[in-house]
Amino acid sequence: MAEDNNQTTGGAAGAASGEQQNQPQFSLQRIYVKDISFESPNSPAVFQQPFKPKVGLDLNTTSSQVGEGLYEVVIKVTAQVSHSETGNTSFLAEIEQAGLFRIANIEGEQLEHTLGAFCPNLLFPYARECIDNLVNRGGFPPLMLAPVNFEAMYAQKKQREAQASETTQ
Predict the structure, then answer these.
(1) Which domains are delineated in the chain?
(2) Confidence (pTM)
(3) Contact, 95 vs 143, CB < 8 A?
């Protein structure tokens, strides 16, 4: 009897199967560190003075198609911390946190939005944890990066692109 429950016949079940094939599909395949770097060029002198940090943070995202329906999204986070009074670099931490995403039946603007905002939102907590860990292992207090609004970053990028296309016309 169990065999009867697993059989698919034509009609409504076949139509539902066809509809599922056209539905947007999204899945996270893997999260990984693509590149990582930590430098403390003024060690050990930096530990012999009060820690008064001045943080410079750079954040960038990229994406590329690496196979049929398979996309790599990379968040690059660079944190340069220097002494607020002397300007000497305390440390430079850099990470490229990446993820592989399987995406099907999502195209055009919706695909761009998924790769430019949604995927980075999923990856950022991993990048943030990795930076904190890296900085801590370098002998410094954790950096504790604030959450990032990738939706707003994506909207700003689209606005700059629109302005650039208007000025070139």
Answers:
(1) 24-147 (3.10.420.10)
(2) 0.80
(3) no
